Amino acid sequence: MQHTIKNVSETEQQLEIILPAEEFNPEVEKEIQDAKRTIQIKGFRKGHAPAGLIRKLMGQAIEAKVAEQLASKHFGDIAEKESIKPASRAQLDDYSFEGEQLTINLSYEVHPEFELKDYNDYSFVENIYTVTDEDVENEINLILKGHGTLVSVDDAAEEKDTVIADLVKMDADGNELEDQKTENHSFNLEYLPADNPFKEALIGAKADSTVKVETKPENEDDEKFTYEVSVKEVKRMELPELTEELLKEITGGKFEDIDKFRQDVRQQLEEHFSQKSEQDLLEAISSKLIEENPVPTPSAMVDSFENMLIENAKRQFGGSFPEGFDDKELRASMRPNAVKHAQWMLISQKIAETNSLEVSDEDIKEFAEKEAEKNPGVNAEDLVKTYMSTEFRDYVTDSILKDKIYGLIKSQVTIEGKNTPLPKHGEG
Q1: Is residue 86 within 8 Å of 108, Cβ to Cβ?
Q2: 97-103 average pLDDT score
């Protein structure tokens, strides 16, 4: 057997395999004999058709099958021998049986070869969140909103109020547009962006007042419109008093003691923002390394991440997109993110290889024991067996290796803590 590898690009290769007759002829004969036993040809009893006739009728199909089988058989061996890192399955481009030799041409994608830039001088900021009493009360108030009541007030509208108003749309000359009147529109000011023109105009407005709102066109050439907004009512959320009885109802009986509930809310906030701080730091690290190492990515790897992102989007719709939804535009918007995922995979693999990072059975056992500590109802030995099983081992190994990679990077870069207030509701 002979083989030749041709680099088409940084992520693409072509492989030519040349096999002598003594290697492919036995395979061809085997296929002919198999076909002879299974197919029925008119005029011959099953299994008694001449081999020459079988070859004549099925020669092309048999040759295609043999070429594919031999390509699959030899590609793995050649990849191992030549230290090829395939990023996609090898595709059979073409083949030819010419006398005493079979020539097979394959194409496939590979992990690119690259040198990782030194990252020891990189510095990152890690947000350190401290949960205050005010943060706890704000979180409790959000919980109480589900049991609150919107009441009309005579005061001027504030940032968290709801305004009920009639709208009339007018053209640039101030003329009312036909069929462009909306009655009893509800503006929930709390959830409108800070720069929303309706929010800007309605904060400070009272019932029975009228304000004018001029839209801000996205493009200079777009037509400007003005809305005449007649405020009919300003509503404000009135929260109920947190009593032991209400607390029991809200928490499904989990809490009756208000102080213990506050402690739990504080703990939940601290855990959430500790995780957010860590996640933000890891994202900053990966983004910096991707920026400094713009690795070429195999399209098959990017396709895989793109499909993963699409599946995640589907779950937001309950498992499938609405009928008639065309995901082409969504895929196009997700492609850059999929490229970054692929780049980070290549970079993190490089870091693992360079630093000989591996996951041992002892690592998996330790990981399982830590997970069991977080869940008192879980037996550590049972969890170890689960994580060691074929079904879960790859997933757990990836998680542990990911932690090792980030741990190594964090130990070699500069990380400065920054005291940061908790973001307001809707900001993080």
Answers
A1: yes
A2: 88
Do 101 and 18 meet the contact criterion of CB atoms below 8 Å apart?
yes
Over 70: is that where the pLDDT of 42 sits?
Answer: no
Regarding the domain with residue range 2-109, which homologous superfamily does it belong to in the CATH classification?
Trigger factor ribosome-binding domain (3.30.70.1050)
What's the whole-number average pLDDT of the chain? 90
DSSP codes of every residue in 162-230: EEEEEEEEE-TTSPEEEEEEEEEEEEEGGGS-TT-HHHHHHTT--TT-EEEEE---SSTTSPP-EEEEE
How far apart CA 20 and CA 30 sit, in angstroms, is 16
So where are the chain's domains? 2-109, 149-238, 256-420
Cα 50 from Cα 38, distance rounded (Å): 13
Strand ranges inside 255-334, DSSP E: none
Q: Taking Cα atoms as reference points, which of 167, 303, 160, 151 lies closest to residue 238?
A: 151
Long-range contacts: 200-206, Cβ < 8 Å, 24+? Answer: 201/229, 202/157, 202/163, 202/165, 202/229, 202/231, 203/156, 203/157, 203/158, 203/159, 204/156, 204/157, 205/156, 205/157, 205/163, 205/229, 205/231, 205/234, 206/154, 206/155, 206/156, 206/157, 206/231, 206/234
Could you give the residue ranges of the DSSP H alpha helices within 47-132?
A: 51-81
Per-residue pLDDT at 294:
94
pTM: 0.79
Residues 6+ apart with CB under 8 A from 155: 206, 234, 236
CA atoms within 13 A on the CB side of 145: 13
Candidates 376, 396, 378; CA nearest to 387 is 396
| Mean pLDDT score, 208-231 | 84
CATH architecture, domain defined by 149-238: Roll (3.10)
Length of the chain as a residue count: 428
Instruction: Specify the CATH number of the domain 256-420.
Output: 1.10.3120.10
Bridge partners (DSSP) of residue 104 are 17, 95
CA–CA distance, 23 with 300 (Å, rounded to integer): 32
Helix (H) or strand (E) holding 103: strand 101-109
pLDDT-derived band of residue 374, with 50, 70 and 90 as boundaries?
A: confident
Judge whether 104 and 16 are in contact, CB under 8 Å: yes
Distance CA 15, CA 153 (A): 77
Q: Which residues contact 39 (CB under 8 A, 6 or more apart)?
A: 46, 49, 54, 58
